[in-house]
Amino acid sequence: MIKDSTVITMDGDGRIFRNGGLLVEDGTIEEVGRSDDVKKRAGRVEMVLGGPHLLVIPGLINTHVHPAQALLRGLVPDDLRLVEWLRDWVWPLQGNFEGDDGVVAAELAALEMLRSGTTTFLATSMHSRYDIEGSIRVFHSSGLRAAIGRQTMDMPDYAMEKGILYPGMIEEREESLASFKRLYSTWNGKDDMVWIWLSPRTPGAVSDDLYREVAELRREYDTGVTMHLAEIGEDLEYFRSRRTTPARFLEELGLTGAKGVFVHCVQFEDEDIAIFARTHTSVSHNPSSNMKLASGIAPISMMLAAGVNVTLGTDGGPSNDSYDMVREMRTAALLQKVGTGDPSSLKVMDVMRMATINGARALGIDDIVGSLERGKRADLVVLNLRRPHLVPRIFGPSNLVYSATGQDVEYVFVDGVPMVEGGLVRTLDEERVLEEAEEHAERLYSRVKGEPWLKYLDQPTFTRLHDLPEHHGSIAPPL
Asked: Residue 242: which residues within 8 A CB-CB, separation 6 or more?
């Protein structure tokens, strides 16, 4: 039981209880409401939390995650545009994963997500190099709900750029599709914790024929599809060369619809927004990544006004440098105000819906998670507001979106089981994960240094991946 706390339900009525509580039994929410009412319903209670300094919210749902990229944080330069960033850095690094690099990265991403209040996420572009099944085992045992997007591809291109994909990232079409089917057979729906999705590469990097096959498989397996879409100007150039728009392109290939989550959608115009609204297709907004890579500002307020289901994602380690959804809510709210010149363009409750119930709706699991309601699974997060940057605590949603970070999370429950207690993750050995992540990043860097593909290592303007300083013993450059 949680009592005497601020509870933000995110239910259809938007109920907020300043002196509220909830009761959980066998992983299900039995009661939520005023604290006195919850106490009356409670019998013998095994665990009790409470106090006016606690803020209770639904578990956060991150709809765009690259788990493998957790291992790349700090290895990739900060000040590059997307195509150069991918071609010269991210793809070569990922293309040199070997052994259990992907599993260690998955543990690091899981640790950070749980610690900062994420209970469910959607992984995009999962490649065979990352040991997908080993990564799924990590997520499942850690207590996270995970939709795993298995990458499919048949071209080494990006938008109008031909043959730029790093050789180590190329997969055969049939093998990627066969892998999806194997993973689906083994894992899909397991314990209501794992779902296997399709994740084709970006338009211009996949043939129309393969996109159509993905659409057919999606219907046959009743699963979801996720991919990057209309992120930068080069993407728009590709669509214009095809005399189409991003959303029309997807609709003609049969890829729009429920459980379709398309990431970024920065270069959207009115027609695209109307198609997504009409077809019930979801957008994953990733503001920190869009800002860092100078991709632009997605027209999120226009999408919401048109009825598009807009969700929130963090993207990956080197494009955001954080998997913290609490921080991402603040970034989303602020960026939209700047982009529109209207401070009311994205309100506090709008952005909270994006991070909770909208995310659940996008994944097709809003009947079990995404809000704190009787009968739903007890996926919930408890934050400690008794901190200087969170006082006074008159209006909990504002404290959460504009003042909090994931470091303020004290407890995380999934299915009513505490995965985080007192800010510490129970399901992962934090010290071991951090130590192994450091070691694997060092070895990955050492392998990549010898790659002839990486000509930039010889450029005098290069400022990040210098030779390892022997006196320093780490991958960071000396100050």
From this structure: 249
